[in-house]
Amino acid sequence: VRDCIQKTLTEWSSKIGQDQNQETLEVLECSVAQAIEKINPEERDELKVSAKLFIVGSNSSSIRDAVDLACSALGVAQLDSVIIAPPPVEDGTNLSLEYLQPYWKELENLVQNKKIVAIGTSDLDKTQLEQLYLWAQVKPSSNQVNLASCCVMPPDLTAFAKECDIQLLTHNDPKELLCEASFQEVLQESIQNVKANKWIPLWLLRYSVIVKSRGIIKSKGYIVQAKRNAS
């Protein structure tokens, strides 16, 4: 992730030069057009577009921004699936249903508005997944389990997922995919005259475009949004 961000920022910065005063902006739109492959509408039915969304320092309202930007970048009307990584909680605090609810409601709205087909979760144990499933209007279609936390799927989670037709997937993402300090460090290295410590990453979305018939990845990438703290 760090390398992708650094390469994009460095290339973008070299193109705009010093014509733009970055310190006056609250949001920088940094993109390298040739690095993103838009999907041909004629091929859309043959492809599955999936994403995993990591909330870093923002709230549930940013989910819509992330999905809209992903759709726009890839040239599609909707994403086939979106998995949300649980937003960070304070140390010593357990992830509760009440904490997850506003994020899941936002995902449900996007499903109802046909921006997403299926929604899933990550790193929920059996109790958390069951609570979410019983409460949710749009049920989770999948739940990712971190390979680092278990070598074998917990039997109670497996049984519940089978009963409720929830697909259990595995992943090896670190608990914190992009921390504030790491983002600010790469920003400082990539763009001249920028006060990196004022920039806070809000969310990171990782997408992949898969050819359904062959199960191969056609393209993949990251979309990151960060905001400048005025204080």
Automatic annotation (TrEMBL):
- GO biological process terms on file: glutathione biosynthetic process; response to oxidative stress
Transmembrane region(s): none
Q: Give the metabolic or biological pathway.
A: Sulfur metabolism; glutathione biosynthesis; glutathione from L-cysteine and L-glutamate: step 1/2
Q: Which family does it belong to?
A: Belongs to the aldo/keto reductase family. Glutamate--cysteine ligase light chain subfamily.
Keywords attached to this Swiss-Prot or TrEMBL record, sorted alphabetically, are: Acetylation, Glutathione biosynthesis, Ligase
| InterPro entries xref list | Gclm, NAD(P)_OxRdtase_dom_sf, NADP_OxRdtase_dom
State the Gene Ontology terms under molecular function: enzyme regulator activity; glutamate-cysteine ligase catalytic subunit binding; ligase activity
Which parts of the sequence belong to the NADP-dependent oxidoreductase domain?
32-169
**How does the record describe its quaternary structure?**
Heterodimer of a catalytic heavy chain and a regulatory light chain.
Report what the protein is called: Glutamate--cysteine ligase regulatory subunit
Identify the GO cellular component terms for this protein. glutamate-cysteine ligase complex
Q: Which Pfam families match?
A: Aldo_ket_red (PF00248)
